[in-house]
Amino acid sequence: MSSWRDQILSEFTPQVARLTLIADPDRLLLEEGILAGIRERGFELIPFEDHVAFRYAYESKFRSRWDRGEETDLVVVLRLESHDLNELPYDLLQAGRKLSFSLSDLFPTLDSSVVAALDRADLDALFDAQTKHAPGQLGVNATKDFVLRHVFGIAPELIKEPQDLLQVLLRRHYRGQRIPAILDERFIQVLRQNSLFEDWPLEDIIPEAKAFFAFLQERWPVFLDSYAKPKDDAVHEDAADYGFKFPGPPLLPFGHDDVRIYINNLFLEGLLQPVPHEQSQALAKTWVAYGIKVSPEENRRRRMEGLLDSIEKKIPTVEARHEEWLQFAYPWAELVSLEMQPDTTLQEEYRERLEGLRSRIDSALKDWVLKHYASLVNLPPVPPVMLHHIPRFLARRLADDRNSKIAFLLMDGLALDQWIALREVLKELDSKLLFDEKAVFAWIPTITSVSRQAAFAGKAPIYFPASIHTTEKEQELWTQFWIDQGLTQHEVTYAKGLGDGDLDKVSECLARPRLRVIGLVIGKVDRIMHGMELGAAGMHNQVRQWARQGFMWKLLGLLQTQGFQIYLASDHGNIESKGVGRPSEGAIADHRGVRVRIYSDPRLRDQVKERFPKSLEWSSVGLPEDYLALIAPNRAAFVPAGKTLVGHGGISVEELLVPFVQIYRRDG
Q1: How far apart, in whole angstroms, are the C-alpha atoms of residue 21 and residue 298?
Q2: How far apart are alpha carbons 411 and 520 in whole angstroms?
């Protein structure tokens, strides 16, 4: 076998049996490549986790068609909790063939507890290493060392100097690489044997990206002082003099070749912030220029040029994994946010490059989505990849600490680039706020009744067909999700329509004595969008103005005072789009958005498609079968030709990839 997937996918031969039951305790079939391979072979997959949800999908989508004599490809049912398929309902056991897959079958010589901790995407490198090196039977620590070296490229025993460790951590945290805690513990254990790292905060900076970048940030000014001084004039290196939060050496080797190659991108993409320096003019002519504050105009010009150069080289290909798009989204959002900064005029050179880049990115994302988006729906919820994964992710956080409380803030319509603008204002208002930022995929079509409901229901839209055209059932879906997780109705609450200074409504919710989970819909950005006549730049300006009024800052403070862990997300973003004509469809469309039309009859959709041949007939991934979307092409809108407005519903980075952020407050 050339890949571990081949061993599994070889069992999926079409028309052997219309129903296959699979015991999958290690969740191998939730890996992205496996899911794509199964779909390519004509199979459809339903996870057996929630009995009611499963039965609905099974009966409505498959059983009813079989009863009508229709032929379908095989339906794959996953049993995630157990090897024992006999726990499945009797009618399934009678109808289906039975298979079982496990990690111990694929990696028989490696310790199963270590292998099980890995992200399934890492199994490729592990399988290749096992085949190439044939390590024999390994114990726990030997397996950890084998995985660290061959999967993550980390040989702890070879890290002898600070630059060695910084290079490893920069590569890891800049790429957003996830390494299991049991491997981090082994890594730290070996490093602690080197006295050079005795006072380093390894337990913080190795597993946590935000801690690592904060560690670098507070030491950057020390390096600049050192870099600016004559070589024979040493910098005073007493950490106590700098008031550092993190222990460790004050002076880090930022200038070492293996470290320096990362520094510009860290400042360009906002992972590190430039600082003022008394010799800024001289330093601005050297390689440290991106880390120096000069004039706002010059800082913007530098970042614009640097991000344009960097992003042009990083557009994910059609074969990219979903993580590449999630990582790509933030640098792109930083660039768009720079473009939209108020009171500045963008040079024509930059404007032309941006427009060309937008076209390339839109095309690349569309091609990728058509091939891979369907495989995202059933991925594991930790870390969240799609909006409907978030409630299950939060449930696990709540289960980790029975005394914890969680607040989920859903910013209706907030694009990732607008989150960047909001974040900047929040930092201005409160320098102690910290943000652990990631991105997730919204639902297609990117409209509120689909994507926002999924974020609160914790389920794909196929499971709430009765309310898919409205949000009236949102509170009910949110509450039911948490009741299914073992909470009582008194421990869960929800409020919507927030954003205009109405904190009394939130305070009233928080007064409930047994409250553990609160879901809040902040609709101000969506209201701004639907009244926007000044394009994307006007949106950014309005979001900044609203943020400076302090509602979000006060809301965060209120929740933090009450001891809530705070998570923020958006249901969809928005883009500036130009009209290509309004479909003459009367009342036949179930939803008449500016970027998408929804129909229940394929013939009606086909008729409109004929008038707009470049529009996309979406394949109803994860949606009810009679929910048929027609998506406007590129950055077009179904409004009178030539009219420009801000809207949503389509497939662009700005609409589809949305923020998912945990918000902290720094102590002290």
Answers
A1: 61
A2: 8
| Tokens coding 95 | 């109808």
Separation CA 656–CA 58 (nearest Å):
28
Range 612-615 contact pairs with CB under 8 angstroms and sequence separation of 24 or more: 612/580, 612/581, 612/583, 612/638
DSSP code per residue over 489-526: GGGEEEEEEE-SS-HHHHHHHHT-TT--EEEEEE-HHH
Q: Same domain for 516 and 396? A: yes
- pTM of this structure: 0.89
**Cis peptide leading into residue 465 (ω within 30°):** no
Instruction: Tell me what the mean pLDDT of segment 125-139 comes to.
Output: 93
Give the span between the Cα atoms of 524 and 502, in whole angstroms: 11
- Give the torsion through C-alpha atoms of 202, 208, 211, 217, to 10 deg: 100
Containing domain of residue 101, as a range? 4-106
**Total structural domains within the chain:** 4
- The answer on 638 and 599 residing in a single domain is yes
Are 228 and 272 part of one and the same domain?
yes
CATH code at position 564: 3.40.720.10
Q: How confident is the model at residue 525 (pLDDT cuts 50, 70, 90)?
A: very high
pLDDT single digits (tens) 363-412:
999 999 999 999 899 888 889 999 999 999 999 999 988 889 999 999 99
The dihedral of CA 143, 144, 148, 149: what is its sign? Answer: negative
Residues in the chain: 668
What pLDDT, on the 0 to 100 scale, is given for residue 359?
95
Cα–Cα distance, 351 to 70 (Å, whole number): 54
